[in-house]
Design brief:
Number of helices: 14
Oligomer: single chain
Order of helices and strands: HEEHEEHEEHEHHHHHHEEEHEHEHEHE
Radius of gyration: 27 Å
């Protein structure tokens, strides 16, 4: 089989220009989240296959890169099913590993635990603009805080980070899975069919109200039920305050504290937010992960034309490992999409150090070369980025290349000039 110089499909090599921006963005994320009290932590990229396939990851469980058993544990001759071949996989997000991490280390962690985790994840997805099979995720999570203080802190920390990176005019859309369920039950859908209804509702922005109606009818639901359900959304669109409207309309199937909780989150963020974004209640917001149990939120950016961050409350996940429910809520920035938008806009990292190139003629060696290197070391101590490199025959072309890389000053060293 011939060697290939191209990366595997859906993955990419990262050139120095992009790497500089990625490092800068990560530094802003660490600094901003650190000011909110989030603590850095890390989990392995490989997880037990049982943890990754416990029916909490939605469609992502179909996209796992699975890892074969190794050594004597792998017996192809006797294997009768997948579990005989596979015992682990690459993580598809950072939330499932965090739940396992907390269950394993809770005794050594503060409560509530404000976690910051950045790392690559893998999904065998169809590559497209801003979406890869290997990509960086940046998550903040609060475990052990049952009140909506967790949601408020997560939303403020994430939005503050995006504003610091120069983004504005975005929307933070918020909903609650309990409101979604109440709307479906109120309309007459069986509880066991709610997930199917939500999958169709999640397509509202793509296929519109008529498309949602047609798909629900195709899925075998009664026309009367579908009409009652969509009528809720039509009246909601006309209401002056969507949360207040649903609090009254669903009062027989939805506890009052759900809408009170949502209203408090929205009001608190609006009162304390930085400029540059809007907080919007969106009753069509679903979020794909089945592990969400309450509040859900998503950030929509006009530059991207879609979501660039999302999260919500997942109170039941840690309990899958411990048998004891732990309140948990998280927010994940779409790191790769942020990087893509910055690259497309021609973003330049601010406060870059001064870059200087020493061009050293061939033949400068021994004590003379040591003199050049010592001088470069002295300049580096002052904060200047100094590149020491051999002088090319085509010096103009070499300088043009270095200028494109951000070098604004050059010094040339010739063997004759450096002779003692």
């Amino acid at each position: 089989m011939a060697l290939s110089k191209k990366p595997t499909v859906g993955m990419k090599d990262i050139l120095p220009e992009e790497m500089e921006i990625r490092n800068y963005v990560m530094s802003v994320i660490r600094d901003t989240y650190g000011k909110f009290g989030f603590m850095p932590m890390e989990t392995p990229c490989v997880e037990n296959i049982a943890n990754l396939t416990n029916k909490q990851g939605g469609d992502n469980e179909k996209l796992i890169f699975k890892i074969l058993k190794r050594g004597a544990k792998l017996n192809l001759e006797t294997a009768g099913a997948e579990e005989d071949l596979v015992d682990s996989g690459l993580r598809y997000d950072l939330t499932v590993p965090l739940a396992r991490y907390y269950a394993n280390n809770a005794a050594q962690l503060p409560s509530p635990f404000k976690a910051l985790q950045m790392g690559n994840v893998w999904r065998a997805d169809r590559p497209q603009r801003g979406r890869y099979r290997q990509f960086m995720q940046c998550d903040i999570d609060i475990l052990g805080e049952p009140s909506n203080l967790a949601e408020i802190e997560l939303i403020l920390a994430t939005s503050t980070t995006l504003v610091r990176l120069g983004f504005g005019g975005f929307e933070i859309r918020i909903n609650d899975r309990r409101i979604l369920k109440a709307m479906a039950v109120y309309s007459g859908f069986p509880e066991e069919s709610c997930d199917s209804v939500f999958i169709t509702l999640d397509k509202m922005d793509k296929i519109g109200m008529d498309g949602v109606e047609a798909e629900l009818l195709e899925n075998g639901f009664e026309r009367e039920t579908v009409s009652k359900y969509l009528n809720l959304y039509e009246k909601l669109a006309q209401a002056q305050n969507g949360v207040d409207y649903l609090a009254e309309a669903l009062q027989d199937v939805l506890e009052k504290d759900v809408t009170d909780n949502l209203r408090e989150i929205i009001d608190s963020v609006r009162a304390t937010k930085a400029a540059g974004f809007e907080m919007v209640f969106d009753a069509t917001l679903v979020r794909g992960m089945s592990y969400y149990t309450g509040t859900i939120f998503e950030i929509a950016m006009p530059e991207f034309g879609g979501s660039c961050a999302g999260g919500g409350r997942y109170d039941g996940m840690v309990g899958k490992f411990t048998g004891k429910e732990v309140p948990a809520c998280g927010f994940s920035i779409g790191f790769e999409r942020i990087i893509m938008l910055l690259l497309e806009s021609g973003f330049q990292v601010p406060d870059r150090p001064k870059k200087k190139a020493y061009l050293v003629e061939k033949g400068v060696e021994g004590n003379a070369l040591c003199e050049v290197i010592a001088r470069a070391q002295a300049e580096r101590e002052t904060g200047i980025q100094v590149l020491v490199t051999r002088m090319n025959r085509n010096k103009k072309f070499q300088k043009d290349q270095l200028t494109a890389e951000g070098y604004g000053e050059f010094e040339e060293f010739y063997r004759d000039a450096l002779k003692n």
